[in-house]
Predict the 3D structure of the following.
Amino acid sequence: MFRHRLRLIVVGLYLAAATVGAVVSAVTGSADALWLTVTWYPLDDSPFGTSSELDDSIVLLFVLLFATLMLRAWAFWQIFSFPPRGERPADRRVVWLRRLLYLAVADDLILWTLRDLLLPDTAVELLTLVLWTPLEVLFVLVLTGRSGAFRALALTLAGLNAVAVAASAVDELPGVRAPQILMSLGLAHIGWMIMIILGQREDGRWSEITVSLGRISLVLSLAGPVINFGFLYVIGTATGGLLIHLLSAFGVVSTVWLARSAHEVAVAPEEKPRGSPAWPAARQPS
């Protein structure tokens, strides 16, 4: 079925494009083509400068591009490994959560480029608000086996993050400055994520692999700013910038967590033993 071959097609096309980019780079002596086909944005638009400015780090550049290539190929394999078709979930909240999770994955992969190019910053922030607020609320509501206090805290964190995104949107308007304390409420997203991972762990629908990917994504979110600072101010701008790029490439772990969460959210707990990475067989209509 095409549904099951899609991961092979996507990963194959990505690796083929990167191979073409590598050949062009080898012929031209510039890393621009390989960078574009691996990362999907021009090297000149990166914070590291043009390829000619990276001559001293050219070996590191190609090593990091290869690492990024392998990481993204793994991510595409995971994202496009859809489970077998089953019956439509009876809970409409599950249906809409899965749709929003897939939309968030699409935004992480490619839609962010289009909206950042075509839309003003205020509109970008508003779209983020429209996508993530219902996503965060629905994710809390579909979790099973959690107390009312747990849900209330998680929903409060989702609300605080929504306030932060709305404040950021207002701050982008000409001549308007939103209170910094409101924008700092965006840290509530980290708390929301912790609550969701704890909920997934006890829910029964999500595999150990998916929960572990959520934990890794959380650690990367917390450690990223500190590591970035160290790369830039201890190692230096050019080389440090390249290492930051590699670290940012690990952002696909969060995207994979979202995708696998969407894949597994409609699976009944008894159909998916804890720790099982395999997809359950599709349910047969009665």
In short: The chain is about 70% helix and 0% strand.
